[in-house]
Amino acid sequence: MENSVRKLHSEQTTSFDTEYIDQKMFEILVKQLDMLYPTRQSFHLLDIGGGNGVYADKILSHYTNSRVTLVEPEETLLEKNRGHPNKELKCSLFQDLELVIPYDIIQFNWVLHHFISDSYEATKNIQQQALIKAFNHLSSDGLVVIFENFYEGILVRNLPSKLIYHTTASKALAPITSKLGANTAGVGVCFNSRETWHDMLLEAGFKVIVHIPFYSFGNLSQVKTRLLHLKDQNVGLLIAKKE
């Protein structure tokens, strides 16, 4: 039996109507893509959870020979996309999406931590299956690109992942966690450490994995940080190549 995927309510997605990849980050990404894939040739990018399409438009503007298929389950975000002859929009969860052609690049921009189910174990399985699905539907030498917030534990590397999941996924605690600032309250969120994502990519079949660190952030109080066993919060980029 497949694990069901929890979906955020429309009002919980309003904070995602923004673009987190600034010009400097985009330039670093482009440099990596050009080194790892023959981007001078035409290529097809699958943008999972592409939201308002600002990132897809950046790709289409920079790589004029590219095509982008943008997948987004929230219609209010999908409707904000600008039209482009090389951009196709699909309203769907990644788990429900039937992939019939291989893609050259499959991208998850701060999306994987929103792949949530009714237990922590089922959630980790959904995340792992998403990476396996991406691997299986990449062209030869294709890339999976992941922007993520990495949550690093003090002694146990991925303990914050489990603690944050159980705190935010609880429907009983939702009124409290919502007031504390968790916009995923009652649905859940599952961040992982960088090493955990690295291991999951290896498990999915990838061999070459590049990590680009960007910056540290700390949006939690000292009390919350200690309760969640948090050592560091970092934004970074993972690129894995199929060989």
TrEMBL record:
It holds the Pfam family Methyltransf_12. Signal peptide: none annotated. CDD domains: AdoMet_MTases (cd02440). InterPro entries: Methyltransf_12 (IPR013217), SAM-dependent_MTases_sf (IPR029063). Residues 46-143 form the Methyltransferase type domain. This is Methyltransferase type 12 domain-containing protein. It comes from the Bacteria.
